[in-house]
Amino acid sequence: MFEEVRYISCIINERTPTYYFYHKQSRRLIPIKSEEQKLLKLFEDNHPSCPSPAETLKKVIFAIGAEVLSIKVYLFQDSIYYTYVTIKNSSGEVDINTSFTEAMSLAELIKPPILFEKNIIKECGFKVTKKMIEKALLF
């Protein structure tokens, strides 16, 4: 079962990004560290003659008369987050398997709902408490 999460931010530390998501219902923060080496190119401004993979995917989706319904993180296994981009056109819906990083780059462009499998929220997230926030603010 999928649950919607809110994308909070991406923080790059030592050339490795960590994405942060929040699941309001369970009050869990889900940090996802992406170890993909090609990631830095995705954060650079691209020249129009060399668009990012996310820009290209966005244009292809539009060209086939489809829309992005959601991004789904459906499995976490062996330190890898498996991700679908769900699109819909007149023929129906289809899940396109893509890397987590490229899905997040696409999400930053078009702002679709982001859905996580409920088990991933539970296993990879941690509960945010008032005490935790107070301690962080006093640091």
Structure description:
- By secondary structure, the chain is of the alpha+beta class.
- The chain has a single domain, classed as Bifunctional nuclease domain (Roll), CATH 3.10.690.
- 31% of the residues lie in helices and 43% in strands.
- It is built from 5 helices and 8 strands, in the order βββααβββαβαβα.
- It has helices spanning 39-43, 53-63, 100-110, 118-124, 130-138, and strands spanning 2-13, 16-23, 28-33, 67-77, 80-89, 92-98, 114-117, 126-127.
- An 8-stranded mixed beta sheet has the order 6-5-4-7-1-2-3-8.
- Helix 2 (53-63) packs across helix 3.
- The radius of gyration is 16 Å and the shape is globular.
- Mean pLDDT is 88; it is low at 37-42.
Summarize the structure.
This protein has helices at residues 39-43, 53-63, 100-110, 118-124, 130-138, and strands spanning 2-13, 16-23, 28-33, 67-77, 80-89, 92-98, 114-117, 126-127. By secondary structure, the protein is an alpha+beta fold.
Secondary-structure-based class equals: alpha+beta
Major sheet size, sense and barrel closure: 8 strands, mixed
How many distinct folded domains? 1
CATH class: Alpha Beta
- Could you name the CATH homologous superfamily? Bifunctional nuclease domain
Number of E-state strands: 8
| SS element count, helices | 5
